[in-house]
Write a structure and sequence with these properties.
Helix content is 72%, strand content 0%. It is mainly α.
């Protein structure tokens, strides 16, 4: 390769690397902005959920009029929390619990003391399922070493199931839930 060709190649590579470095810096900047925007969006959804939760169905529907189904689903998902299971009608709670795995139920209540939702769950499953849940719960690691993400994931599965059942008309959430 001639010396001139080598110099041109070096210059082209140097210019391209400079452009790549500029692009990388812009990507990092955009990623940081993206994270901030996602956090702002998450807070907005939580605010809407907290604002709408005490309203009756008619009031919620009026407030959510004209909003995309996807966004309504996200807001509704954040309106219903795991502890709200204790507020459901006994039969509706039983319908949900019947469809849950004992593993999910054991993980979901593992870090709870004698809370209203744990009492509601334990009093609305069959004796056989209750025994299996307690055995599974006891077989799990000590509370200090239980991965909170596993507990949250199990609770989220149960909440999502309840939301699906409510949307399908299989259960009814009481006013304010």
């Amino acid at each position: 390769m001639a010396k001139e060709d080598l110099e041109k190649a070096k210059q082209s590579v140097a210019e391209t690397v400079t452009k790549i470095n500029t692009i990388d810096a812009k990507i990092a900047e955009f990623q940081e902005q993206y994270k901030k925007l996602l956090e702002m969006r998450r807070r907005g959804i939580l605010f809407c959920a907290q604002t709408l939760k005490p309203l009756n169905d008619e009031g919620r529907d009026q407030c959510l009029e004209g909003i995309s189904e996807k966004l309504i689903d996200e807001i509704r998902t954040n309106m219903f929390m795991f502890n709200d299971l204790a507020l459901l009608d006994k039969r509706d709670l039983q319908k949900i619990l019947f469809k849950c795995s004992t593993d999910d139920l054991a993980f979901a209540v593992k870090l709870m003391d004698n809370t209203p939702v744990k009492k509601a769950i334990f009093s609305n499953v069959s004796k056989n399922n209750l025994q299996m849940i307690r055995e599974k719960e006891n077989s799990l690691r000590e509370p200090a070493t239980v991965d909170k993400r596993e507990v949250m994931a199990a609770q989220r599965k149960i909440i999502d199931l309840a939301l699906q059942m409510e949307k399908a008309g299989e259960i009814v959430f009481p006013e304010g839930v």
